[in-house]
Design a protein that fits this description.
With about 425 residues, the protein is of the alpha/beta class. The chain contains 15 helices and 7 strands. GO terms for molecular function: 2',3'-cyclic GMP-AMP binding; cyclic-di-GMP binding.
């Protein structure tokens, strides 16, 4: 499982709630300290601070509202309602308005914390106006982490769109037909061991971190050779009758020259990410490209894991570009994933002991058959093996039969076999 651990070390996990926990802890500690030092003015101070923090965004929202209403009400909102669309888009949300109203009521009931009432209102208005100014100038703008968290949470990244497009426009259409294509391929081709393993019967999708894709795999690694194409899958799509989708079969050689056949291809949306990073007008550099590739992998993995049509028909392979110096890195990565898939299966055939017979065959000939059966049952009972194949639903087409009548069979003689 080493390759899975390596992938987990590269793929960023979704951000959690630790910032909220830290902020709540700091607020509790600070409020507790103020309550200990001057409890009589606690509610006034808290109300004034909350009112300042909510009035600032509301004033900034007014500035945004002026721009939206004057220049973008028709083009961006298509004449939709002011209260239902434009105001929430400018920051006049229900939570902000509710917090400001409760803070104003609390300040009115608790009284002003400053000695003079005019000082309290001057400080409140000045802080709110300066907040709106600094917010408009970008001084109080969201950090990169906040922007990243918002884009990931709302699925607004380039990687999210590319992953969904790759799934809806390609994988969901072709993967359900993959097994039939491989069966047709096996019927017309004669190769050493055609798709005998579970991993070989899947579509291997290569996702390099640098998004640099070669159109021919043999150009990347001379241990990979093109063998042939699977039968075409023809689907009526977007007005095109019998649109053709195809997959290529490659022969991958290991270090001993043994051939392994598999269906493998790159994730084509990565070509878009790489091209965007080469265009200056896209504002998409190499660090952003690498981050988007990782998000593409994580998003596509989440989508495919929930897809019933694609289940057990694919394998995502994340390629780390740190090993580009190895000329056979690509073939080794493919073979490592194929072997990992094969290890998940339980082989019923025992290994060979060197003389052409399974291990332990000669020894088993000298053991009593009853002892062999007893030992096998004991081994299966105490050391159950994993399933030898993927779980399937088994049912019978025969009609149910009535239960048999009990038969008396206790009349026997002891000592007889």
């Amino acid at each position: 499982m080493q390759c899975l651990q390596d992938q987990d070390a590269l793929i960023p996990r979704p951000r959690g709630t630790l910032p909220k926990v830290c902020a709540a802890s700091l607020a509790a500690i600070t409020i507790g300290g103020i309550m200990f030092l001057s409890p009589e003015r606690l509610f006034g101070w808290v109300a004034m601070v909350i009112l300042t923090l909510t009035l600032g965004p509301l004033l900034h929202g007014l500035c945004l509202l002026a721009e939206e209403m004057l220049y973008h009400s028709n083009t961006r909102y298509r004449g939709r309602g002011l209260l239902s669309h434009v105001l929430p888009a400018c920051g006049f949300g229900g939570k902000t308005l509710l917090a400001a109203g409760l803070a104003g009521l609390m300040l009115y009931l608790a009284g002003h914390p400053l000695p003079h009432k005019s000082q309290c209102w001057k400080l409140l208005i000045l802080a709110s106006v300066l907040y709106a100014l600094f917010k408009s100038l970008g001084v109080l703008g969201p950090s990169e982490v906040e922007v990243s968290d918002i884009c990931e949470g709302r699925k607004m990244n380039v990687a999210h769109g590319l992953a969904w497009s790759f799934y809806l426009g390609y994988l969901r259409l072709v993967l359900p037909h993959l097994e039939a294509s491989i069966a047709a391929f096996r019927a017309t081709h004669h190769i050493s061991s055609p798709f005998c393993g579970r991993g070989s019967r899947k579509l291997l999708i290569l996702i390099p971190l640098n998004a640099n894709i070669s159109h021919k795999l043999e150009d990347e690694d001379n241990n990979i050779r093109f063998y042939d194409n699977l039968p075409n899958t023809e689907i009526d799509r977007a007005g095109v009758r019998r649109r053709v989708y195809k997959h290529s079969v490659y022969t991958v050689l290991n270090e001993h020259g043994k051939a392994h056949e598999c269906v493998v291809e790159y994730a084509t949306p990565l070509l878009t990410l790489y091209s965007m990073s080469q265009e200056s007008s896209a504002g998409f550099g190499e660090p952003e490209r690498r981050q988007q590739v990782l998000l593409f992998y994580r998003t596509l993995q989440d989508i495919l894991e929930r897809s019933l049509e694609c289940r057990n028909h694919y394998k995502l392979i994340l390629l780390n570009d740190e090993n580009e110096d190895d000329p056979h890195f690509l073939s080794k990565a493919i073979l490592r994933h194929l072997q990992q898939q094969e290890k998940e299966e339980f082989y019923l055939t025992p290994p060979d002991d060197g003389d052409g017979a399974p291990v332990g065959t000669n020894f088993a000939k000298m053991v009593d058959p009853l002892v062999q059966i007893s030992s096998a049952i004991d081994r299966d009972w105490h050391h159950p093996e994993p399933m030898s194949r993927e779980p399937t639903l088994m049912y019978s087409l025969e009609e149910p039969q009535p239960l048999k009548e009990p038969v008396e069979n206790t009349d026997h003689y002891y000592g007889k076999i």
